[in-house]
Amino acid sequence: MAKIILRHLIETPVRYQEEFEARGLEDCRLDHALYALPGPSIVDLRKARAAQCPAADSAPAELPPQGGKSRFQILLDVVQFLPEDIIIQTFEGWLLVKAQHGTRMDEHGFISRSFTRQYKLPDGVETKDLSAILCHDGILVVELKDPAGTK
Amino acid sequence: MSGRTVPHAHPATTEYEFANPSRLGEQRFGEGLLPEEILTPTLYHGYYVRPRAAPAGEGSRAGASELRLSEGKFQAFLDVSHFTPDEVTVRTVDNLLEVSARHPQRLDRHGFVSREFCRTYVLPADVDPWRVRAALSHDGILNLEAPRGGRHLDTEVNEVYISLLPAPPDPEEEEEAARVEP
């Protein structure tokens, strides 16, 4: 099956591409939850998918423990930075997010900024278990990869 | 930290001052967010409307800058509430007014964070950099002010006279003349 790439006015986050493929383009066009960024009102895609295709046998068994345990997820407001200004590293069980931009002009003159944030990773989490998304509105999401999604 | 942050900048002209908004909001950076703080995204002509995050009381105005334009003085307000007074430095380099601040790793409600920024204002031409005064209020607003000379700068125009240079002497003729002489 050819990969469906849906071009909106802005590019759609990659995390939903598989959804288009699985459900068909026309079906997705009216599902506004797909275009929403992570937020309180967003429908959990995994749950939605599990409800739609109950044939997937192993998925419901795995969901409850995950739902009870909060997944590792960090949200950061990095709207002032370009994607290439941001470095995400892991070091001995710590997650480091560094962002730095050089002097640039704005309405009041010139500005340069940088920051470093450190988070303690849950035990046994490595770089390969993490995924990062920079949303269109400048919110960086670093989270544990979905074990169901990688299957 | 000895040189200018900006290689060269002309003094701010009146046109420049008035062409720009006097307040700059939404200057926060590197703020941690909690999932419940994020509002549902709204699209406006294909652009996401900010702020996505509900303004979270303390620290939500950090970095905001305001320029007050008046006849008698140059005044700028800058929110440096993330930094303690000894972490902020203000200096002028020629006609640049530089505010830089950095703080080392520190614990906040999301984890450890260190921040650094440097904001440079370009002083108007009639402000004497030596007379800039800075005051930091208890809520972390840095107030920078300097009296203005009040003189209106006329554009100085100097028509440069173009002098005509004589044509260079022909090298062949010179060589002949050199041969003839001895």
Which key features would you list for this structure?
heterodimer; A: 151 residues; alpha+beta; Immunoglobulin-like; three-stranded antiparallel β-sheet; 5 helices; B: Immunoglobulin-like; 2 helices; Heat shock protein family B (small) member 3 (chain A); Alpha-crystallin/sHSP_animal (chain A)
Can you summarize this structure?
The complex is a heterodimer of chains A (151) and B (182). Chain A is of the alpha+beta class.
Describe the structure in your own words.
The complex is a heterodimer of chains A (151) and B (182). Chain A has 151 residues and is of the alpha+beta class. Chain A has a single domain (14-50, 70-150), classed as Sandwich (Immunoglobulin-like). Chain A is built from five helices and six strands. In chain A, the strands form two sheets. A three-stranded antiparallel beta sheet of chain A has the order 1-6-5, with no helix packed on it. Chain A has a three-stranded antiparallel beta sheet with strand order 2-3-4, with no helix packed on it. In chain A, strand 2 (86-91) and strand 3 form a beta hairpin. Chain B has one domain: Immunoglobulin-like, CATH 2.60.40.790. In chain B, a hairpin with a 2-residue loop joins strand 8 and strand 9 (111-122). By secondary structure, chain B is mainly beta. In chain B, the strands form three sheets. In chain B, strands 1-5-6-11-10 form a five-stranded antiparallel beta sheet, with no helix packed on it. A three-stranded antiparallel beta sheet of chain B has the order 7-8-9, with no helix packed on it. Classes of the chains: A alpha+beta (151), B mainly beta (182). Chains A and B meet through strand 1, strand 3 and strand 4 of A and strand 2 and strand 9 of B. Strand 4 (109-120) of chain A pairs antiparallel with strand 9 (111-122) of chain B. Chain B: May regulate the kinase DMPK.
